[in-house]
Give the backbone structure.
Amino acid sequence: MKTLADIRRDYQLAELDRKDLLDDPIQQFDRWLQDTIDAGIPDPTAMTIATVDADGQPSQRIVLLKDVSQNGFVFYTNTQSRKAQELAANNRISLHFPWHFMERQVKVCGKVEPMSTVEVAKYFMSRPKESQLAAWASEQSKPVSTRQLLMSKFEEVKKKFADGQIPLPSFWGGYRVIPHEIEFWQGGANRLHNRFSYQKQQDGAWVIERLMP
């Protein structure tokens, strides 16, 4: 029987060299994201986000990327959740895309800025009705004694909005992550992985460096 220390594999799907990279990291991210979508990888837009509380304790959770452009990376959440409260006190954030089926990872470091109400409302209204109702039913990150209690709250909300459009909750919003560092990781043989970091300069230009694995 294998122990945890024995579980390993070599990474040999692809190589990554500077000549393979686009000069713009957002365009490079778009290329890799499309590769992931085309490969049929489950949840290609899933990303781990890391925030830090007032005591310096990091916390991570998975959310879905909902837009990416030269303006940044976008996700939405309950603004009373733990992550939102931590971001209100410290707007630094890290994103991680674990595309391990393709032996790839992308890490993003940056700061968040709140999305406008117009942007948030537009996205909220595009969500499936059940997802809109769930946003109203869940006081995200708050303790709940049983799942039955949560489902009862969902049914209450469902009845409340049965006859009309579901309004945008005042406690639901979005964030745009403005990156200053984006790292692309491609697994390599013998643990000699390929890592390239894009660092944003004061003039807005990006400098690319290869990093030791």
